[in-house]
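Our consortium's second objective concerns turning raw sequence data into structural hypotheses that experimental partners can test. To show how far this objective has progressed, the report includes one record in full. It was chosen at random from the queue rather than selected for favorable results. The single chain below, 71 residues long, was entered without modification.
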Amino acid sequence: IFHSTLGGSARAMALYDEALAIQTAVLGRQSKDVAETLHNMAIVHQTLGEYARAMALYDEALAIQTAVLGR
């Protein structure tokens, strides 16, 4: 989120994409860390006005958090 607030949204997304790939490879998709990264990616998309993409990422993050942590 830090890069995003400094106007480096493209750089932030590149770093999040890399982090997500590593987390998914090591932890699997159903991980609270993956959910947190997806949530942070959603924030960047929301900041850019890309609301549909942001909602999709928020939904995915919530689904993972619910599966991993319960309700």
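The partners drew two points from this record. The CA atoms of residues 55 and 65 lie 15 Å apart. The chain has a mean pLDDT of 90. Both points have been shared with the crystallography group to help prioritize constructs.
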